[in-house]
Amino acid sequence: MWLFLLTEILLFSGLFLCYSYLRAKYPAEFHHAGSDMNVVLGVANTLVLLTSSLTLAVGIVAMQGRNRRLALGCVLATILLGLVFLVDKAVEWTAEIRRGLYPGSPHLAAQPPGEQVFFGLYYTMTGLHGLHVIAGISLLSVMAVWVARGTLDPERPLALENSGLYWHLVDVIWIFLLPLFYLAA
Prior knowledge:
The chain is mainly alpha-helical and about 180 residues long. It contains 7 helices and no strands. The chain has helices at about 1-25, 25-35, 40-65, 70-100, 105-110, 115-150, 160-185.
């Protein structure tokens, strides 16, 4: 699991390096494009994901303590919070698309190259992150079924713990995305 997580860190690290290089190349354009981002939704998504990490951690501890009912409730709460994150992201993307700020749009093509790059990175990085959230929700859905059926061993709920590691990594990645696109303007 740690090796898999390392590959995920390397993937996003490459994207963060790309962002850093391009932000240094187009500082004014990145500043202008970033100033139009919805900070409230970005921060709300951060709070949602941080809360989801807490609910999953409580669920893992509950499972280790043989409290399957609490563990199931916490895993389901984590899944629900992940879905809330995706809905918030869809609302935000919809607003950006309505403003004509999406790759290949005539409106964005008329903007300076740095703003085009900013939104290309925004959609690529947040979209890839969203795919990871979907993967995490899918994985946690399997864990919820296993907890409900009693398939997981409370003495060693390794599958749930590994799912938690993945989910926490997804949260940490968002914590890096938040300042890059929402707060650094």
